[in-house]
Amino acid sequence: MGLQEETADVLGNLIRFNTVNPPGQERECQEYLRDYLTDAGFECEMDGVEHDRPNLIARLRGERGEAGDEPLGEAGGPVLGYLSHVDTVLASPEDWSRDPWSGEHADGHVWGRGALDMKSQTAAEVVAGAALAREGWRPPRGELKIMSVVDEEVGGHLGAKYLTQDRPDLVRCDYLLNEGAGPVIPYGDRRLFGVCCAEKGTFRFAVRTRGRAGHASVPAMADNALLKLLPLVERLGTAHAGFDVTPEPLAFLSALGLDPGDPEGALRSIAAVDERLAKLVEPMLGVTFAPTIISASQKINVIPAHAELKVDCRVPAGMGAGETMARVREVVGEQDGVEIEFLEQVIGNRSPIESPLMDAIRGWVGEQEPDAEVVPVALPAFTDSRWYRDAFPDCIAYGFFPQRHQSLYDTWPLIHGADERIDIRDLGFAASFFHELPRRLLA
């Protein structure tokens, strides 16, 4: 059985495990992967906080020396880690044209929740690793680790966070491949493959206004706090703070031949070629605000004395609270009776753009598609890579799952959406990458 067919079969099996989080209940799925990798020759260990939600760590250690020495591990060369999560978000069957947990192969695709986010990468990584092990290949230097974790969709506290903080010995690695980028980005007559080198931070905040309560039958006798909030909703939903171009989008714009010193002009140039790409690039260039929740009076006949707006705010990697608040005030302004409070403060994370891992990715893509280009990108959201970058500062962690048949414009609307599916040819393409990479980095 070839890599493509086997990966499609494994993905279908993974989708049939309903691992919607909450509650997750990933044990059966993880046991299936454990048995699959153990049969191929990996050493497997399961560990977790909750019995029904274990994480799986599978290891393919280095070759033994001529005199029967112990296998090489961290001390004998670099450790390459393949990371994925097997929990998914909810799916509403009534919105789908096929059963979200069927793992059905139809129209050249594998269908189901997790087909893109991210059981497809789990399948490609484990099939590639198993194929190497079955072929008798062992790392001449270092070690290959395949890590399938739980709980990513609600923050990773039972998964990657637990492992990196409580079991760092088990998951420490020098190079890490995770989700975050990889589908081809058509740009005019060019084909770009993004590698996620950074993830934005999360600085969610509340905006509160004060007034004076009163009976709703006589509005003029009160001071409606909700009305004071409404202009701020509009402002935060439509206004743009100044640009903050960090190294990753700077390198991306430069690769496109655009001037990173003029991000507004660069966005116009991108939109002139493909407006879809401009919409995806804009969040990389600065702070974004998305008003999501508003609350005021608890009774329809009472004019509210207090009103609150909650805003999802994402900021470029490395930006802290002071810089973020300056951008918030730039949009909201300084007004009496308006209070702003951060509800969450997570600084964005990054890895160096240039590394042996990036060289290996460029080399492989260049062989597969000589005219394509590899470009660094920043993810507007976050993944489990943040826990690894925090726990292991020297670890080079990238998001990369290569796809050349489904473009970024095809995949992005399907992630967390209805009729999630992946082109079977892309499963083979990705599996071939994960099969080849250890030979390049661990040789």
List the helices and strands and how they pair.
Layout: H1 3-15, H2 27-40, E1 43-47, E2 55-61, E3 79-85, E4 105-106, E5 109-111, H3 119-134, E6 143-149, H4 160-166, H5 168-171, E7 175-178, E8 184-187, E9 190-199, E10 201-202, E11 205-210, E12 214-215, H6 225-238, H7 247-255, H8 263-273, H9 275-281, E13 288-295, E14 302-303, E15 306-315, H10 321-332, E16 338-342, E17 349-350, H11 356-368, E18 373-379, H12 385-391, E19 396-399, H13 408-411, E20 421-423, H14 424-441
Parallel strand pairs: 3-6, 3-7, 7-19, 9-18
Antiparallel strand pairs: 1-2, 2-6, 4-5, 5-20, 8-9, 9-17, 10-15, 11-15, 11-16, 12-14, 13-15
Helix pairs in contact: 1-3, 1-14, 2-3, 3-14, 4-12, 8-9, 11-14
